[in-house]
Amino acid sequence: MKMRDLPGSVLFACSQNAVRSAMAEAILKSLHGKHIYVDSAGVRASEVNPFAVEVMREIGLDIARHRAKTFDELLDGSFDLVISLSPEAQHRAVEMTRTMACDVEYWPTLDATAIEGSREAVLNAYRDVRDSLLKRIRERFPAAPKSAV
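RESULT FIELD:
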């Protein structure tokens, strides 16, 4: 896939915009900077999850100031691609895009907030979500070779 084949704008969507979609937004922004407009939203808004902040810092990305927002709060409602990470968000994304030319992809992603156990067990669940998103995003949105930039 060439840079010109990448979408110009991507929305990541999940249930609360506090873990999965916030992570995905930060990862894609870190890989493609200003080449792709990236945003995220949730069906409902919640505060960014402290475990998500912690595991993202482990890879050098700071999402501590991420402000969760709902679909209704999006400044730009027009995207080339919406990637939903939860069943609830997939339903909302399909509704939202009925009247626009926009692709929708569903990437079922573990809800790490449902994991219980020791702090380390919970952190490992968040790391698994982060790492799976990182892998999938790198595959779906390959970076340009350094010589081409």
